[in-house]
């Protein structure tokens, strides 16, 4: 049995045993891309889980591996150049990575469905939106042409596309960006999946449309008790809809926590820096606390903690020793040597001394 | 309050919509910018926000004289900028510069960074005689926080945030007075966005620049702007100081826009008022009669379809183009206290 540090009690305590198998658990996923430019270590041990009815937000900068993780779960990775080096994708406890192709096919759509980052490229431009939805119902559910068409209309109705009866005959380019995204959602829901992976479903959309789509996803999720993995780099969206957050950096999850706990007090310097670098509608200031430097190249990930070249709290140890993914109280984890200290000392925002203390320790 | 450096009045830009292969017929016009007025004062930042397609980039392109206006005027330092010719026009092209949205496509991939930043000197040799150019380019790289040693590198050797810095260095090369920033940080990650925003702020303080700062991210605009104009379908619907627009928005569209911005604080979840708009933005070819926002407005009355509301001050001390303008605090936009 593993132990976790309980910040409130100031001691290590036994970790409560997980009593149920999560809907989906990704364990220590490792993927690299072998190209002419070299070997890019894209996923370096990604672990997260999500339950039915729960929303897990996966947050991270461009190139941190959010989409590749999703593609690995769905079994739609480009192989080659991608190579899965290890790990498990457990759906109801069954490892999909070692499952037969027919079983994977079956899970795709019915078990796990995905909404892609770019709706236009995911919809086929030569077929009507209605046909593309109906086709799934015909092939996978064995519905007749007429039934499938009716099903498609119902789904378009569900995602609140006005005049669904007429719109079912439209081609993707005849839809606005927001409507295309809704059509994508309709398509992903056709086979009533237990888990939906939404890869940046609203990034390309205006805030007013974004709000409509997020409402829609939340309503559908509640109605169907569906698990939702929401991939995004928007901390605002995360704060509004997520139950839990997994923060990715250079192909690793660096922090995983309940949304309230994470915003109240991050347990990883990268999360802390992200929160501080954000321009906010409700806070107006002079300079933002920018994170210095750039995310690392995945062909040359720095030794030790991959965040150390940019980390204001880094010490010598960080340059050599890769931090473990420490369990912390309240089902949270952090991959920082000083995770416990960060939690104990609290969020720098709540105490003006804290940040400078972190900095001076870095200088020492 | 500083004097205005740029005065825009009733600016209009329509694009013809043509059909036919051989004999093109004009069947209508995209009313991309349809009567926009504002002042930009010396040393200030005027933010321009609005949804995709509302005409922000078109406005920028008319103001740098890349596109001719269909109507209206703009005075730059008191002179009609659309009437300038010859040397005066060359001078204007030095004084008004643009930084573009997309750091991935806005730089020529075959030119070195030195050539990209130095190119404006080719066109305006009077700013930097040949021998002094390399030194000037190195200085500019330094100003925007890039390593002057990298002068011979190509754009693909830089990250998105670094490329955006190259674009900024290029815009600064001719020591402009006004810089129009068209979504300069939209394509960047949060961690890099903050670096570029800080840089823009610093340069403004050091060089006394005036910015027109276009963005669809209202938090970004709030952070950098002194005043803000909100656009909808080719028109400014509300304009005022950043505090007025964010603190006391009086146009229903501004209120909806502000309320829809997700606030990165889960503690406010469910406690914020969120105004949900229904429907999509109408086509700019055939905008609704009267008030253009009426097809999505929850307050619309008959008069809204008949009479176009003027952009005048009715309440809250700043102009708003709504017959029924009322100041309304959108909770979450203005936090009670932190
Ligand atoms: N087909 C591919 N071939 C080679 N490299 C790839 C391929 N797909 C992804 N990568 C690389 O894997 C890394 C992770 O990519 P991924 O798409 O998962 O990032 P992401 O976190 O989703 O970023 P974004 O926010 O930009 O979508 C990147 O460095 C990317 O260049
Ligand atoms: N050269 C052109 N010819 C025809 N129509 C155009 C042209 N340029 C822009 N438009 C149209 O004018 C309107 C305004 O476009 P503009 O690019 O100014 O919007 P924007 O506010 O910058 O949007 P975004 O936030 O998406 O960049 C749009 O309907 C666009 O399709
Ligand atoms: S392990 Fe060290 S470098 Fe890495 S995040 Fe923690 S303090 Fe920073
Ligand atoms: S004028 Fe009428 S339709 Fe337009 S914003 Fe005001 S209330 Fe709404
Ligand atoms: Mg992605
Ligand atoms: Mg634009």
Automatic annotation (TrEMBL), chain A:
For membrane topology, the record states:
Peripheral membrane protein
- PROSITE patterns attached to this UniProt entry: ABC_TRANSPORTER_1 (PS00211), ABC_TRANSPORTER_2 (PS50893)
Organism phylogeny? Bacteria, Bacillati, Actinomycetota, Actinomycetes, Pseudonocardiales
Pfam families reported in the protein's UniProt record: ABC_tran (PF00005), oligo_HPY (PF08352)
Which keywords are on file for this protein? ATP-binding, Cell membrane, Membrane, Nucleotide-binding, Transport
UniProt lists the family membership as follows: Belongs to the ABC transporter superfamily.
* Organism in which the protein naturally occurs: Kibdelosporangium persicum
Q: Can you say what this protein is called?
A: Oligopeptide transport system permease protein OppB
| SUPFAM superfamilies hit by this protein | P-loop containing nucleoside triphosphate hydrolases
Q: Does the keyword ATP-binding apply?
A: yes
Q: Where in the cell is it found?
A: Cell membrane
ABC transporter domain location is: 26-275
Automatic annotation (TrEMBL), chain B:
Under Gene Ontology molecular function, one entry of this record is: ATP binding
Give all residue intervals belonging to the ABC transporter domain: 6-258
Top-rank taxon, per record: Bacteria
Do you know which Pfam families this protein is assigned to?
ABC_tran, oligo_HPY
Entries under InterPro entries matching the protein: AAA+_ATPase, ABC_transp_ATP-bind, ABC_transporter-like_ATP-bd, ABC_transporter-like_CS, Oligopep_ABC_C, P-loop_NTPase
Q: What does the UniProt keyword field contain?
A: ATP-binding, Nucleotide-binding, Transport
Q: Which SUPFAM superfamilies match?
A: P-loop containing nucleoside triphosphate hydrolases (SSF52540)
Asked if the Swiss-Prot or TrEMBL record annotates the protein with the keyword Transport, the reply is: yes
Task: Name the PROSITE patterns on file.
Answer: ABC_TRANSPORTER_1 (PS00211), ABC_TRANSPORTER_2 (PS50893)
The keyword tRNA processing belongs to this UniProt entry's keyword annotation = no
User: What family does this chain come from, according to its entry?
Assistant: Belongs to the ABC transporter superfamily.
The record, for NCBIfam families, names:
oligo_HPY, PRK11308.1
Any idea what this protein is called? Oligopeptide transport ATP-binding protein OppF
Identify the species of origin: Kibdelosporangium persicum
| Source taxonomy | Bacteria, Bacillati, Actinomycetota, Actinomycetes, Pseudonocardiales
